[in-house]
Design brief:
- This protein is an alpha/beta fold and 241 residues long.
- It is built from eight helices and seven strands.
- The protein has a five-stranded parallel β-sheet with strand order 5-4-1-6-7.
- α1 packs antiparallel against α2 and α6 (153-166) crosses α7.
- The chain is globular, with a radius of gyration of 20 Å.
Length: 241
C-alpha cells in the first residue's frame, strides 16, 4: 500500500466512523486530510527524507581508497513497455538518476559497473537488464556485471557480493538514492565488501522557497520513498531485537 493510499484509507475510515462516533470520525478525517496536504509539499517531504539524507553526504573526489567496481542499485520496481525504444524501460526517476550518476563515475574513475535488480512481479524483463541497456544505449557506458535475481535489498547485496568476489573485488562505489544509502551500505558491508557511499537523487534541500509549500507530484514521490524507508528501518530494528 502506498503512502497516499494509506492516508486515503484513514480519511474513508473517519467518514465511516463518524456515523457512530462523530467526534472520533472528524478527528480521523481531519488528520488524514492534513497529512495528505503536508506530504504533497516539499516541506512535508523533507520531514520524511531529510533525516535519512542527512546521514550521508555526496561523494567528493578524489577517492582516497582503491576500489574495483561501481555498483548501481535498481529500485526493485516494475519495468514497462516502451514502444518508442522497441524494448522495456524504467519509469522510475530514482533509477534514471542512479544510472546517470553511475555513468559519470565510470567516466571519472574507469571502474567497471555492476547493475543489480531482479524481475518484479508481472514483468517479463529484469530490472538489471533494462538498466544495463539504458547505460549502454543512452549513456554510452559499458556494464561488466548484471545481477538479475534479487528481489530485496538484502538479496542485492548478497548476490552482488558473490559475483564481485569471483572477480576479486573487495571495495565498491555504491550508487543508490541518498535516503536509501545507509541501509544499502550496511547490507553490502555485511556481505563482506568495503563500501564507499556514492549517493544521488537527493530531495529538495533547505532553505525553502514559497513554491515548496505548494503540492506537487515530485514532493509526493519523495514522501512515498521516505515513508517506505522508515518502514524498512523499523522492520530491521524489530528484527534485531
Amino acid at each position: 500500500m502506498t503512502l497516499l493510499s494509506a492516508l486515503f484509507v484513514i480519511v474513508c475510515a473517519g467518514i465511516l466512523v463518524e456515523r457512530l462516533w462523530s467526534g472520533i470520525g472528524k478527528i480521523f478525517v481531519a488528520v488524514g486530510l492534513l497529512a495528505v496536504a503536508v506530504v504533497c509539499t516539499n516541506v512535508g517531504a523533507n520531514l520524511l527524507v531529510g533525516p535519512l539524507e542527512r546521514q550521508t553526504m555526496a561523494l567528493h573526489q578524489p577517492i582516497d581508497r582503491p576500489c574495483q567496481a561501481i555498483v548501481v542499485l535498481g529500485a526493485l520496481q516494475p519495468v514497462y513497455p516502451a514502444p518508442e525504444f522497441e524494448s522495456s524501460t524504467s519509469t522510475s526517476t530514482q533509477v534514471l538518476a542512479r544510472l546517470r550518476y553511475g555513468a559519470r563515475l565510470y567516466r571519472e574513475t574507469g571502474l567497471p559497473i555492476m547493475v543489480s535488480g531482479g524481475r518484479p512481479a508481472g514483468t517479463e524483463e529484469t530490472e538489471a537488464s533494462v538498466m544495463a541497456r539504458i547505460l549502454k544505449d543512452e549513456f554510452a557506458t559499458p556494464v561488466k556485471w548484471v545481477e538479475a535475481n534479487s528481489a530485496s535489498l538484502w538479496q542485492q547485496a548478497r548476490f552482488s557480493s558473490t559475483d564481485l568476489n569471483r572477480s576479486e573485488a573487495s571495495c565498491i562505489l555504491l550508487v543508490t538514492s541518498a535516503a536509501n544509502m545507509v541501509r544499502a551500505a550496511r547490507n553490502f558491508e555485511a556481505s563482506g565488501l568495503e563500501v564507499i557511499p556514492a549517493p544521488t537523487d537527493f530531495a529538495h534541500p533547505e532553505p525553502f522557497g514559497p513554491n515548496d509549500f505548494l503540492p506537487s507530484v515530485r514532493a509526493m514521490n519523495f514522501s512515498e520513498r521516505g515513508a517506505k524507508e522508515w518502514v524498512f528501518r523499523l522492520r530491521d530494528w524489530f528484527s534485531a531485537l
